[in-house]
Amino acid sequence: MSKKARTLATELDGFISPFRIDGGHKFHLKSHKTKVKGGLDKADGEAIIEQNRKRLSDFQEKLYAQDRWSVLVLLQGMDASGKDSAIKSIFEGVNPQGCEVTSFKQPTSKELDHDFMWRTVLALPERGRIGIFNRSYYEECLVTRVHPEVLKAEKLPARLVTKNIWRERFEDISAFERYLTRNGTVILKFFLNISKEEQRERFLDRLEQPAKNWKFSMGDVTERAKWHRYQAVYQDIVRHTSTSYAPWYVVPADHKWFARVVIGSTIVAALEALDLHFPRVDGAALDEFKAVRKALEGEGKGGKKGGG
């Protein structure tokens, strides 16, 4: 690795390592603060966000051209935790041909006729691309536990719905993620950890600003009443699906700008570690380029004579 690369990794590590969980059976969500700023003020944070945008754009071009690796970014979090705005900010300026955002809402009847991973598998990124999941297959271990009626809608045979179903789903997801990483997909999982107080302020802000009214519904308040249940389930998810090959990043999300520093830095550092580069041209192609150049230059000269 080059000196420049080591410097970049070192520079960003302070915004990554404190929030990485890669084997979290002792993980306790309450011990992870939501208002962390990492020793930065907002101006410093915005400068890092802008630097990371440029780095991400450069890496994405090489990722696309090399066409070997793919990157899957998963964003989970409570309503108003900042998932949508993080995607918009972090990927600003990235070539849209090289990345795709998929938002997973309530399953359709067709999706419910398949296994719980089916619809997300269809949206996995191709080699050379970045796929961004706004919510993901982890909803099938989250919403289905908070709302048992949702699990019933999945039409599973009754004998398969046992007390072990969540452990089994965790095992299936971890095995699936291992499979993906062994086939060249880098998995980056972010849980945007927002406080209940900050969510309340953001909900009130949505009500105050007409441009944000569309984001709000009474359903948000209904789910907020189940806050502690959601937190307990998220803790269980992180504990059982954090691995060395697909760790979770528990991102302090009360300050949106710092959440973007953490997420952007993590993505950039992961791309840097892939040693991406534009494909090298072999000798035969270089000889062909010379012939093409000669033909094009000759065409230009001929045009000038004809015009005279």
Automatic annotation (TrEMBL):
Question: Where in this chain does the record put each Polyphosphate kinase-2-related domain?
Answer: 40-274
Q: Which UniProt keywords apply?
A: ATP synthesis, Kinase, Transferase
Q: Could you give a GO molecular-function term held by this entry?
A: kinase activity
Q: Does the keyword Phosphoprotein apply?
A: no
Q: Which Pfam families match?
A: PPK2
For whether the record's keyword set contains ATP-binding, the answer is: no
- Kindly give the SUPFAM superfamilies that the UniProt entry links to this protein: P-loop containing nucleoside triphosphate hydrolases
Q: Which reaction does it catalyse?
A: [phosphate](n) + ATP = [phosphate](n+1) + ADP
UniProt lists the family membership as follows: Belongs to the polyphosphate kinase 2 (PPK2) family. Class I subfamily.
Q: What is this protein called?
A: Polyphosphate kinase 2 family protein
Species whose genome carries this gene? Bradyrhizobium denitrificans
At the highest ranks, the source species' classification is: Bacteria, Pseudomonadati, Pseudomonadota, Alphaproteobacteria, Hyphomicrobiales
